[in-house]
Amino acid sequence: MESVLKQYFGFSSFRPYQKEIIEQILDGRDCMVVMATGNGKSLCYQLPPLITKKTAVVVSPLVSLMQDQVMALKQRGIKAEHLSSAQTDSSALSNAENGEFDIIYMTPEKASLLPTSFWSTLLEVGICLLAVDEAHCISEWGHDFRVEYKQLDKLRNVLLGVPVIGLTATATEKVRLDIIDSLSMRDPHISIGSFDRQNLFYGVKSFNHGLAFVNKLVEEICKYVESASSSIVYCTTVKDVEQVSNSLLKAGVKVGMYHGQMSNKAREESHRSFIRDEFYVMVATIAFGMGIDKPDIRYVIHYGCPKSLESYYQESGRCGRDGVASFCWLYFTRSDFGKAEFYCREAKSRDQREAIVKSFAAAQQYCMLSTCRRKYLLQYFGQNSADECGNCDNCTTSRKENDMSREVFLLMGCIQSCRGSWGLNMPVDVLRGSRAKKILDAQFDKLPFHGFGKEMTANWWKSLGNQLISNGYLIEKIDDVYRTLRVSPRGLQFLSSCTPDYQPPLYLRMTLEVIGTDEDEDPSGQVRELSGLEPAGFERFSQAEAQLYKVLLEERMKLARANKTAPYAVCGDQALRRITLGRPSTRARLANIDGVNQHFMKVYGDHFLENIRKSSRELDLSLDGVQETQPSPPPNLQTLKAKVPNGKKLAPAKFEAWKKWEEDGLSIERIANFPGRAAPIKEQTVLEYILEAGREGFVINWIRFSQEIGLTEDVHKWILSAISKVGKEKLKPIKNELPEEVTYSQIKACLAMLELGVTTMEDSENMNEAPAEISEPHSCEKEDNIEEEALDLSDDPTSRKRQKTDATDSETPVALEATASSILVFLENFNEGVSLSDLLKHFNGSTKESLVDLLRSLEGEFLIFRKHDAYFPM
Ligand SMILES: Nc1ncnc2c1ncn2[C@@H]1O[C@H](COP(=O)(O)OP(=O)(O)OP(=O)(O)O)[C@@H](O)[C@H]1O
Predict the structure, then answer these.
(1) CA 511 – ligand 1 centroid, Å
(2) By the number of CB atoms within 10 A of the CB, which of 66, 172, 176, 461 ranks highest?
(3) Are strands 55-59 and 127-132 parallel, antiparallel or unpaired?
């Protein structure tokens, strides 16, 4: 399975859940897959046809989506086609029927209109699965119900024995059960992944609607368009789309528009140009939603509060689907909050109306939060998470906590005194001393709180009210379209300890609206800083590397244009960044980079190698630099839990540092400068946080840690030896005993490992022995040739295959010389791969150099591949 993954997709490992789902499909079992957008659901149905050599039939709701997927699959050497109204090849249908394609896409209408003879012929040739993508469309409880999806269960009776796979990114249990039922799934394997999109930064700002804001937004967008980052600006109205895109155009930004009032042709053209990077900024209404499959969108900006948190999650989810750090900013104005009634016009029943108001209230609350936005989003979808994510505006900006006891007493006391079915407006008006008719009629002008909050604006009080809802002091109840507030037991407890002259301290974290001025007090219409809307500096390239990356982006663009495809389909941003950092000089090195597949090597490999060589020479960059060939899979909650000791808690910043290092596989340097952080922190601090996590029992990959800080076996021995002389109480005396090259970080790591009884070294028993050549140490700097480092594993105690291959070696009495074919035959015997040292032992008649050469050429030809320092047959 792994070899097919590498061959066609270029990936060296599966993401969480993918492998188990594919295994279930191969076993013929129906599957229900619920995974966040961008987590890799498509691969679950794209891989089985390549393994079984039978066609996969995929039902997808939108023609544009199918076209994009087919385009990208073709660039991977996969035979894919869509049978939609947009298909111009008249032979596509008969070719599909005869099993010529690995994957065929069709709309649900098409699937139910195709004659039974089509299905029975295809069935005879071989169908490995029927996938129903965006399966929530089948459920009337989902947010995107399509009546045509309801016909799909009929196919079940035709495609007997073919596993059915339902896939969706957003599904409540009710929707999930509905999908299972509607597709007549039998005992399906249910896989529910995390909804957390860890690479996305979430941020919210309030603004004054109008030209001043648009101009500021344009100014910011201009900055990051220079870094060739694709972005979507979602507007709530066609008028806003036109206004924002006109302003961008005037500023010289190439921009596209997409909204429901454009003709089909104009929309298709706009979509196509965006996909192909002919312009980078798309200004759209939410009509530009589900049908977009571009993986390298770096910014999704909402200009106006979305109608629900479900749609916000879905729209912002278009961002960073390739896993690269990306940004979701939401700009709202308080007037957005008055739109609930407008959205309710679509509702047909009281239940639906209530559901719309509830979703909208949740989106509004998201805007007003002063706590972690990710936590709130995840909680809304029923998932727990840490209190602080470290990657949203509220977690990365240090906001003041103020004692708000007096104000809270006034607002909650007033709400309590109104004793009616009111939202925030009435008590706020009372506090501000309004003498409006509704207040006089209700005699609220006689309340003791009347006029006590005049000095603050209405919006200030409303913002505080939202804070109190978030913090559990107030409870909002939604009944039909009416939203009413009451004081919660927690709030009542606070009130009971207050008197008009005394209130116990109550500290609240402030939102910008409460801290700063607000629009009522800001008649100049000035717009607050849109800080944070900076270009995605997703990798800290040196200046020369940044230039090389630009050259490669241009090359990719040229190749994409020549091949009438999208640049991302030629090669993803992630892979291109790894190529920039690794600067491979040979086919094997290029092929080994994560994300580089066989088709890319065949069609573009030599062209890219030539460009890398030429540009690196011109930019004075060395070839074969550090490669990040094996990315860590994105974390999932299950694995995270297993790595966290029971009952142990770390301070949020420390937990975050540990999680990013251990779970996300980021380097210490990257964590210190993580995009979205208000200010970089010192690498030394990150290192100490990770060590502290280790001391607290959190799992640490010590081998990787040692490699990252250059703690080689020799350095480790010297430090242990110094400790044996001067003790471990103080760092300085240890440092004084050691060669200058040994760093405090290495000493600290050694001490932590010693404390924990961890050693990555083989001869830790010899720790009391002085190193033989302490005066002439090896360089303790990080190896810059990771391939050599990875290959030279002869002393690696973790070499996983040693035992197994040793057994084979003992049956090899004569010197055996390696050839390409003998290596292939040998590797076939070991599904779990063979390390270089074991290969050297087996082929004891070959030198290391000649064996490495042979392995590299086999890698370059995609006959073998390397993963975690072991070689596998393709
Ligand atoms: N095992 C993997 N390793 C690395 N990248 C992967 C892996 N599987 C998928 N990807 C990449 O992740 C990105 C998103 O994958 P995919 O389109 O399958 O997501 P999805 O869950 O179907 O999203 P959506 O809900 O938007 O349809 C793609 O760029 C894909 O190439």
Answers:
(1) 35
(2) 66
(3) parallel
Residue 761, pLDDT score: 47
CB 188 within 8 Å of CB 240: no
Split at pLDDT 50, 70, 90, the class of 287 is confident
Ligand 1 mutation target, pool 11, 35, 43, most atoms within 8 A of CB = 43
User: Which residue in the block uniquely carries the two structure tokens 């993401």?
Assistant: 15
- Burial environment of residue 699 by CB neighbours within 10 A (0 to 12, 13 to 18, 19 or more): middle
User: CA gyration radius for the chain?
Assistant: 30
The CA 595 to ligand 1 mean position distance, Å, reads 12
Phi/psi at 27 (5° precision): -80, 0
In our burial notation (b when 16+ CB lie closer than 10 A, e otherwise), range 569-593 reads bbbbbbbbbbbbbbbbebbbbbbbb
- Residue 208: the pLDDT is 67
Contacts within 8 Å (CB) and 24+ apart, 778-781: 778/712, 778/714, 778/715, 779/741, 780/710, 780/711, 780/712, 780/714, 780/715, 780/741, 780/742, 780/743, 780/746, 781/710, 781/741
Question: For 296, what's the count of Cα atoms within 13 Å in the CB-facing half-sphere?
Answer: 23
Q: Are strands 103-106 and 127-132 parallel, antiparallel or unpaired?
A: unpaired
Tell me what the mean pLDDT of segment 362-375 comes to: 89
Reported ipTM: the value is 0.98
For range 287-293, the mean pLDDT: 76
Closest by CA to 687, choosing from 631, 743, 626, is 743
d(CA 797, CA 470): 52
pLDDT at 195: 86
Q: Residue 37 CA: which ligand 1 atom is closest?
A: 25
In the predicted structure, residue 527 carries a pLDDT above the cut 60: no
CB-CB contact of 491 with 470 (8 Å): no
Residue nearest atom 3 of ligand 1, based on CA coordinates: 11
- Given the CA of residue 46, which atom of ligand 1 is nearest to it? 18
Lowest-pLDDT choice from 46-50, 144-148, 640-644 = 640-644
CB 359 within 8 A of CB 170: no
Q: Beta strands of 110-262 (E only): which ranges? A: 127-132, 164-168, 189-192, 200-206, 230-235, 255-258
Q: Which residues line ligand 1 (CB under 6 A)?
A: 11, 14-15, 18, 35, 37-43, 169, 295, 321-322, 572
CA angle 455, 459, 460 (to 5 degrees): 50
pLDDT, average across residues 72-99: 89
Token representation of residue 114? 């195709």
**Hunting for tokens 């039902």 — which residue is that?**
59
- How far, in Å, is the centroid of ligand 1 from the Cα of 629? 18
The pTM score is 0.67
Question: Ligand 1, closest atom to CA 5?
Answer: 1
Q: Which of 282, 272, 274, 206 is nearest to 244 (CA)?
A: 282
Measured in Å, residue 321 CA sits from the centre of ligand 1 at 7
Is residue 630 within 8 Å of 594, Cβ to Cβ?
yes
